[in-house]
Specification:
InterPro entries: DDH_dom, DHH_sf, DHHA1_dom, Oligoribo/pAp-PDE_c-di-AMP_PDE. With about 350 residues, the protein is of the alpha/beta class. The protein has twelve helices and twelve strands. Helices cover about 40% and strands about 15% of the residues. Helix 10 links the parallel strand 8 and strand 9. The radius of gyration is 20 Å and the shape is globular. The chain binds guanosine-5'-monophosphate and manganese (II) ion (MN).
């Protein structure tokens, strides 16, 4: 049995909306990841099974390694089909906001979503949700939005209507937001849910292969290159990797190719904080990705130094300046947080 994580009043409230709704739009965050796509498609599959008209809209393209997911071909990219998407958003009875906590996380879609008269529900697990939805289901203690989607569907009484395809999507989101169940994954109910998803017929080993082991050759060579230039700060239990625009074009970089790179330095003994700086190819900025092990709050560093945010162990931000300047800011952050990095690193001294 699962704990009743979502408040009953919210389940009842949403069920009332749901029963009356016909057109439902699901939106998720910019540069959608496995949880954004997985939770959206998992919920969409359920709505579809109940005869609703459902559309998933995301701000921009998602990585190739998620394109096998059932229903992914029907996801509407806002930056390509803005007019059509605006119409769907304006005419929706319900808008479900999945895996983001603030309107700015959906970029150019924010105005259309804010202006729509649709009833809005947030289902998310990021800290500090903004108030732009009538129903806010926000649970930072839950490791993925996909898990919350599973919990919502079950609590509404529709477990039996989750299809194999829906289960595959939910599993993918749970898996990717926990790094294949290697972090944020000690809640035993996660494994109860996986067991339920297996009962739907998912092949979890195959899903892992499709997500993590279908990269291009150039991506692997790029990884080798990036790691060969890695800088380690042993005194701060930290490491930094980076990628310039020039390097991206040299390795035929495709969006998503550096997905997961930021986690690799955490496999070094004594490193508990990792930073990846990547020059953006569209905007004049450096995208920052931060990861930590243990209780070091990398979201604090993201907020304080890089105008960003996120989770305790996975956060990010943006830096408007050169990559060299971003490195300097990172090193300033290391100096400031050195005492905490030393005291909080669970790998130090071992
Ligand atoms: P990633 O490193 O995978 O791009 O992002 C990891 C997490 O950091 C995301 O799930 C999100 O919570 C947070 N994040 C990434 N970029 C930003 C940003 O620019 N602003 C904020 N507020 N959070 C971000
Ligand atoms: Mn997520």
């Amino acid at each position: 049995m699962l704990t009743k994580v979502i408040e009953q009043s919210k389940i009842d409230h949403f069920t009332k909306w749901f029963e009356r709704a016909d057109r439902i739009v699901i939106v998720s965050h910019v540069s959608p990841d496995g949880d954004a796509v997985g939770s959206s498609l998992g919920l969409a599959d359920f709505f579809d099974s109940q005869g609703k008209t459902v559309n998933v809209i995301v701000p921009n393209v998602f990585p190739d390694f998620l394109k096998w997911m059932p229903g992914s071909k029907d996801i509407l990219l806002y930056d390509r089909y803005k007019d059509f998407a605006d119409k769907l958003i304006a005419q929706a009875d319900i808008i479900c906001c999945l895996d983001f906590n603030a309107l700015k996380r959906i970029d150019d879609m924010a105005d259309a979503v804010a202006a729509s008269p649709a009833r809005k529900i947030m289902i998310d697990h990021h800290l500090h949700p903004e108030e732009f939805c009538k129903i806010t289901i926000s649970h930072p203690e839950i490791s993925s939005t996909s898990e919350l989607v599973f919990r919502l569907i079950c609590r509404m009484g529709y477990f039996s209507d989750i299809s194999l395809e829906g289960a595959e999507c939910i599993y993918t989101g749970m898996m990717t937001d926990t790094g294949g169940f290697t972090y944020n994954s000690n809640n035993r109910e996660i494994y109860f849910i996986i067991s339920e998803l297996l009962s739907k017929g998912i092949d979890k080993d195959d899903i892992y292969r499709k997500v993590y082991n279908t990269y291009s050759e150039s991506r692997l060579r790029l990884m080798g290159y990036v790691l060969s230039n890695m800088k380690v700060y042993p005194d701060c239990h930290a490491a930094l990797i980076s990628l310039t625009k020039e390097e991206q074009s040299r390795f035929d970089y495709l969006k998503g190719d550096s997905e997961g790179f930021v986690n690799i330095p955490l496999s070094i003994k004594n490193v508990c904080f990792s930073c990846f700086l990547r020059e953006d190819t569209e905007k004049p900025m450096v995208k920052i990705s931060l990861r930590s092990v243990g209780t070091f709050p990398c979201n604090k560093v993201a907020a304080e130094f890089f105008n960003g945010g996120g989770h305790l162990n996975a956060s990010g931000g943006e830096f408007f300046g050169t990559i060299e300047e971003a490195k300097e800011v990172f090193e300033q952050a290391l100096q400031k947080y050195k005492p905490l990095l030393c005291s909080e690193c669970p790998k130090s001294g071992k």
